[in-house]
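Study this one:
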Amino acid sequence: MPFWLLWVPWSCGFCFSPFNAGAGYTVASNADLFTTGRAVVVTNLAATSGGCALLFYGVLCNSVWDPAFAMNGLLGGMVASCSGVNVFDTWSAIIVGMLGALGFYVQVWVFETILQIDDPLNASPLHMGSGITGMLAVGFLANDKYVASPDEA
């Protein structure tokens, strides 16, 4: 249930996409409109690729199509995209989403197996694993053109 409360409003534009797009942008000029639109596209591409990555990872490991893997991957991809939503290209958003989802899964494994920490909603591993992965991805995958001046791209 928490997934549907998070993803459905986000994908419909009520919460996460406007949050990422509107966090520092306006639509006062054509350059602002382009940057804001890119933020929405990057957010949704990262979410989708993260969901697919964890869904197929779950199939490879458990031989079962588990929707929980896809749902957590979607959220992991969205969290990972937040740190560089204004500097990622579309191709790099797909990579960031996949890496963010896998970073989430690794962090869940560390919490549950090594540290013996029980987080029933996996909120801590989601934000820690995917967030760190997304921040590191900015250094490797950011487009220099957008880093110099994201509004003039």
Remarks:
- The mean pLDDT is 81.
- Residues 24 and 41 are 16 Å apart (CA to CA).
- The two ends are 39 Å apart (CA to CA).
- DSSP finds seven helices and no strands in the chain.
